[in-house]
Specification:
The chain is of the alpha+beta class. The chain has five helices and 21 strands. The chain has an eight-stranded antiparallel β-barrel with strand order 1-2-9-8-6-5-4-3. Helix 1 packs across helix 3. The protein starts with a helix and ends with a helix.
Length: 409
């Protein structure tokens, strides 16, 4: 009975969500009536030329293209797109050697205005380790384009400029969140299991995937804003949804058995807001001193403790150990943020500044339960590294003893 109710609920949510994603239901109709029905503006030439690209023009299901300037040294391998002055395009794949599958596509394009371009795919050919050809003769639809830095971004469009501009914002939010999720999940997924309540699913399409996840989390009212599959090598799709006026993220992981999770970063966000508040608080009193007792590796190491406080309340402590042998040993920095006299966030880094080995590895710890050693682990820079919370606690106790001695002077 429970499973039947869940299926009915999921089906209802899917139906409602599908209606939300139909442009006409939002009060507008697309101006795009087909490739043959729109005119080309030959005065717009910014998109013309040869580009490196993330994808070849092969399908109307491709949601985004990125056109990058080609390398001036001529070393350009991978995917390419050429937009010719005569409104024809070619896209092709190149490699360093001939042992590969080489795909080539041809067709027509129209730049409608400074916001929109459309494609018509005529022919696909394959050679090398693969063979065959086809003539799709298919309208691939409309794309909203904009320039970002030196590249052009083309996003699949329903023909509404306001929605397209919102989609750019939504996609950028997902890109930023994807980087964060990678740092929490891919690097230390077992330690950060509290953020990922995975549910197995057989769904493969974006709308039912999100609907299933929402039903599993007992969320009835939501809006699916954007769904991003990542690049061709990605095994993780991320959907941006709005729940009670707030952005939430649904993660769909296809590695192994497909599973879905509603990303739980509420505590992380609260901590980040607290850190930003402390870092920008100009009323804090800051004092640096050298510890009496050596806390680092050798007697020749230079050590510094910096304390940020207001009255008797400590909000931030930075400990730096600068070794004499910087050629082989990194400069170790430990930063601790306090809330109500208890560590809330810690990060530690080793900066190797030797001539032959310059790099910085930095890891952050979000304290969930200080007494019971529960933390969230985030790789901030480099490969990161994880040290035991017991070692961290011992080091912090030593630092706090030094601060106490300094205060009693």
């Amino acid at each position: 009975m429970k499973n039947i109710l869940l299926l009915l609920l999921t089906g209802l949510i899917i139906s409602c969500t599908q209606k939300q994603n139909i442009p006409e239901s939002l009060g507008y109709k697309s101006f795009y009536k087909g490739f043959n029905e729109v005119k080309h503006d030959s005065s717009i030439t910014d998109l013309r030329g040869n580009w490196n690209a993330n994808e070849l023009i092969l399908s109307d299901e491709t949601k985004e293209y990125f056109l990058f300037p080609q390398a001036p040294d001529g070393y350009n391998i991978g995917n390419h797109i050429t937009l010719n002055p005569d409104q024809t395009f070619t896209s092709f794949y190149s490699a360093e050697c001939g042992n590969d599958c080489f795909t080539n596509s041809k067709g027509k394009y129209k730049i409608i205005d400074k916001n929109y371009i459309c494609f018509y795919l005529e022919k696909i050919t394959k050679s090398g380790d693969c063979s065959g050809s086809s003539t799709p003769n298919r309208d691939l639809g409309l794309y909203y384009y904009y320039k970002k830095d030196k590249m052009f971004c083309l996003l699949k469009s329903s023909g509404n400029l306001t929605q397209d501009k919102n989609n750019v914002i939504y996609r950028d939010l997902i890109i930023a969140k994807r980087a964060e999720i990678e740092k929490f999940y891919k690097n230390h997924g077992s330690l950060n299991h509290f953020m990922f309540d995975w549910k197995r699913t057989n769904y493969t399409d974006e709308t039912p995937i999100v609907a299933f996840c929402m039903a599993e989390n007992k969320i009835k009212n939501y809006e699916l804003l954007y769904y991003d599959k990542g690049d061709r090598y990605s095994t993780m799709a991320i959907a941006l949804v709005k729940v009670d006026g707030k952005f939430r993220y649904v993660i769909y992981d296809t590695w192994g058995d497909p599973m879905v999770s509603l990303y739980n970063d509420a505590e992380i966000q609260q901590t980040d807001q607290f850190i930003e508040k402390i870092d920008t608080d100009k009323s804090l009193q800051i004092k640096s001193f050298k510890p009496k007792n050596k806390l680092g590796r050798t007697l020749s190491d230079k050590e510094t403790i910096t304390v940020s406080k207001k009255g008797n309340e400590i909000y931030k402590v930075i400990y730096e150990n600068y070794p004499k042998d910087t050629e082989h040993i990194g400069v170790f920095t430990l930063t601790v943020y306090y809330q109500n006299s208890v560590p809330l966030y810690i990060d530690f880094q080793n900066a190797f500044i030797g001539i032959e080995n310059k790099r910085m590895d930095k890891t952050g710890l979000y304290i969930l339960d200080w007494e019971n050693n529960k933390v969230g682990v985030k790789v901030i820079n480099g490969d990161g590294y994880y040290v035991s919370i017991e070692w961290i606690k011992t080091k912090i106790d030593q630092i706090m003893d030094e601060i106490e001695q300094q205060n009693t002077k």
